[in-house]
Specification:
The chain is mostly helical. Helix content is 81%, strand content 0%. The protein is flat.
Length: 130
């Protein structure tokens, strides 16, 4: 019985805690960036990868009824969106007539592509398995 509790509760809970530590590791740096309004050397593209990754794992956790996977990735999705929005706000043109930077456009496209990709996958799965 103790082995069952360890494998079904303790290990997944530890994984959930580690996932949240991973999602929140850039948080202090992002707060400083938010205040200074300067990304410096921070690359915002991985934040869009967090979003795409977490949407996939949230879907998997939902269908497998695995609450540990589901809830740890909900947190990741929220902070990934937060990090991306801070980055996009800072990278956005400051005034009318100013053009968008390549980094802004790449981040924006990947941000939207993450939702578009998983939306299409969801539609295909709903159609195929209904």
């Amino acid at each position: 019985m103790a082995g069952g509790v360890f494998a079904t509760i303790i290990c997944p809970l530890f994984g959930m805690i580690l996932a949240n530590v991973m999602w929140f590791s850039p948080f202090p740096a992002m707060q400083k960036i938010r205040v200074s309004r300067d990304l410096g050397t921070m690359n915002p593209i991985p934040f869009t990868a967090i979003i795409a990754n977490c949407i996939g794992w949230i879907s998997y956790g939902y269908f497998k009824k695995d609450h540990f996977i589901f809830w740890s990735n909900i947190t990741g999705l929220m902070v990934g969106i937060y990090y991306s929005l801070i980055s996009l706000t800072i990278l956005a043109p400051k005034g009318p007539g100013e053009s968008f930077s390549d980094l802004y456009l790449t981040t924006e496209r990947l941000f939207l592509a993450a939702f578009f990709f998983w939306g299409i996958i969801g539609l295909v799965c709903a159609t195929a398995f209904n």
